[in-house]
């Protein structure tokens, strides 16, 4: 098992990036973003020694910070170009947002749990990351006020792709989302074309559920 307990964060990040390369991440900008973002600033201080292991870690409210490989893969699939307008649903710890911010200054992120949204904003401030527009609320309906978006990424598992999100994509826009049942999903990429929407299915993944009007119902 990897242990980065005694490594300085930059050395640990370098090791993580080498691991992501061996697992098939090829986009150099994505790897550079992973090498630049201090994941330890987005996890509980008690877990910071595990921040650069390629694993999911718990955050408050029974939610998770995604595995770095999945963050890198989703970012690679999203194919963000400079100045694109990007919407993320599921801010969580804020780590995926910080990685996306590396690619664009037009980044919007929605989190349904108020405390997590505010904690992520604190982490952005501590890391000196500016210009991420955050709100808390149900992201399954997108963010009509700022729509359309060139790219949309959903970082919680949905029963099916929310139609409201597809509607808020620009022509030629791309949406990356895990869909499936509450426990297991497949990563899917939707590309908007003039006459159709193309869907490509990638690897199996495990995300916490997307809860909301166009997602799962909250359990009692
Ligand atoms: N991107 C996150 C990160 O880097 O830490 C991963 C977050 S976690 C896997 C998924 C997050 O989606 C949780 O924080 C959860 O509260 C949030 N979520 C679930 N349903 C949501 C919804 N309808 N709108 C916004 N956020 C939602």
UniProtKB/TrEMBL annotation:
Keywords: Cytoplasm, Methyltransferase, S-adenosyl-L-methionine, Transferase. Its EC number is 2.1.1.77. One of its GO terms (molecular function) is protein-L-isoaspartate (D-aspartate) O-methyltransferase activity. InterPro entries: PCMT, SAM-dependent_MTases_sf. One of its GO terms (biological process) is methylation. PROSITE patterns: PCMT. One of its GO terms (cellular component) is cytoplasm. It holds the Pfam family PCMT. Belongs to the methyltransferase superfamily. L-isoaspartyl/D-aspartyl protein methyltransferase family. HAMAP family: PIMT (MF_00090). This is Protein-L-isoaspartate O-methyltransferase. It comes from Chitinivibrio alkaliphilus ACht1. The gene is pcm.
């Amino acid at each position: 098992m990897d242990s980065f307990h005694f490594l300085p964060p930059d050395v640990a990040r370098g090791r993580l990036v080498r691991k992501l390369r061996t697992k098939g991440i090829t986009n150099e900008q994505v790897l550079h973003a992973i090498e630049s973002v201090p994941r330890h600033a987005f996890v509980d201080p008690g877990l910071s020694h595990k921040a650069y292991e390629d694993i999911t870690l718990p955050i408050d409210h029974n939610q998770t910070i995604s595995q770095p490989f999945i963050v890198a893969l989703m970012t690679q699939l999203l194919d963000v170009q400079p100045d694109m307008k990007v919407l993320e649903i599921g801010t969580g710890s804020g780590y995926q947002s910080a990685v996306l911010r590396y690619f664009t200054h037009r980044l919007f992120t929605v989190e349904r749990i108020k405390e997590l949204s505010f904690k992520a904003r604190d982490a952005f401030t501590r890391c000196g990351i500016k210009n991420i527009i955050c709100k808390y609320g149900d992201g399954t309906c997108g963010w009509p006020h700022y729509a359309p978006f060139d790219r949309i990424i959903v970082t919680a598992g949905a029963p099916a792709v929310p139609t409201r999100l597809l509607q808020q994509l620009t022509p030629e826009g791309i949406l990356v989302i895990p869909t499936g049942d509450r426990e297991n999903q497949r990563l899917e990429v939707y590309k908007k074309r003039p006459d159709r929407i193309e869907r490509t299915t990638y690897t199996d993944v495990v995300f916490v559920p997307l809860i909301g009007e166009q997602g799962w119902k909250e359990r009692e």
